[in-house]
Every structure is written in structure tokens, then in C-alpha cells.
Amino acid sequence: MGFSIALIVFSALLMMLVLMHKGKGGGLSDMFGGGMQSSVGGSSVAERNLDRITIVVGLLWFACIVVLGILMKLDS
Fold first, then answer.
1. Contacts of the segment 11-16: beta carbons below 8 A, 24+ positions apart
2. Which residue among 39, 50, 56, 70 is buried most deeply as judged by most CB within 10 Å?
3. What is the pTM of this model?
């Protein structure tokens, strides 16, 4: 039960973090005004930290899925 709740929390957090990323252009972000920003050249510290946090949350999300899969297999 605890891993199911953790999976829901990590899914919502991962969705939020991905949506917070700056659009790189050429995708759906241009449709919503993301392409109007000028490129400064290089990533800011905040953007790099956001990348790192997104990777860590993504790995935790993946680990929750693996653990839930193992637990479901052991239960049956």
C-alpha cells in the first residue's frame, strides 16, 4: 500500500517537474508561447538543478514500479 501511494506522489511530482522545464523549441512548448523566449546561451543553475531533481524523481518513480511489480509477483 505504501509503494502505491509513493508511486502516485512521484508520478504527480514528475509531471510537475517535466512541465516546469524550459521549452527547447520545435515542440508543443512553441504552441503555448515557449518559443518567444530569447536563448541566453547555456543553462542556468536553476535549470541544471531542475534537471538533476527530475532525474532523481524519475529514478525513484522507476524503482517504485519495479518494487510494486516484484510485490505483485510474490503475492500471486
1. 11/61, 13/57, 14/54, 14/57, 14/58, 14/61
2. 50
3. 0.73
